[in-house]
Amino acid sequence: MKIRYALFLAVLIIALVSGTALAHHPTGGAGLGQAGPIRTATATTLSQGKLFFDAQAEFIDLDEFSDSQLLGFSKRGKDAHTAESIFHSILSMGYGVTDNLTISLRMPYENIDNIREAHSDEPGEIHLHGDAKGIGDLTLMGQYRFLKTDNNFETALFLGLKIPTGKTNDRDIHGETFEAEFLPGTGSWNPIIGAAATKRYGKVSLDGNLQYTFGTRGTQFTNLGDIFSYNAAVSFRAMSGPVAWDLILEANGEWKEKQRIRGDKDPNSGGNTLFLSPGTRVVFGKSVSTYLSIGIPLFQDMNGIQDDAKYKALFGVSFSL
Fold first, then answer.
1. What is the pLDDT of residues 213-227, one digit of tens each?
2. Is residue 237 within a helix (H) or strand (E), and if so which, with residue range?
3. Which of 152, 176, 283, 305 sits CB 3.0–4.6 Å from 244 for a disulfide?
4. pTM over 0.85
């Protein structure tokens, strides 16, 4: 038992010291449940035969570059782009195949606002591209809980696959196809593996998860890179009854590899950031909940020239049958 707790604490420690790379593709919330964290996946699975539905909206406000900054980059012989904000809406559903096995589907719709670029070979020009938007890639996940003890400790494994169902031909205001990193769909098949641990102490729940997504080549001969995400959360049931109220604090991180275009690494991609995400969840009865999470950047170490995030906000509603 001491070994199990040590592994769980290791998950939490890694999550708290890790970083998160801001990607143009959605992160959103990971939980499939009516309690506990919002962005952090828990080890708890759905009961056999239970259906779960979730709708999320995520807004990321970017610290975009001004036109003068873009021109400055291009005059120094560097290519640079910027965007105003990112908005994701995500629909998810899960099903309890057994008490220890849950399968889920996740479909996003993506919108990146006001994309602008400057190129080193045209140092006096700003290229306006407008908004990139459309349906993103479908993700299929399976979660198997292989341990549940009498003292409320659980561990689970995740296996998944991101399927290239998203739009890869979205065009800008000039009729040209957006670069691969801005497109809603990646055109790539991406395997996913992960693990989660959960420990409950009365009204307090501790959760942590690790997840690795393998990048593969997709549209425009582009591999957007591997992603290693780390999350940890503390949840407190502040009020119980027909209407319950949870207070949540999470650390959400992600390392993202540099993307490769025709085999060449893009120096202005990938990196590390870390977000502290306070949140709250209100549960109505046993089947409906609504939640809100605000991500505050604590650390952003992006490679090359990239937009930082000012903050990100996630709101969602879920219900189960």
1. 999 999 999 999 999
2. strand 227-239
3. 283
4. yes
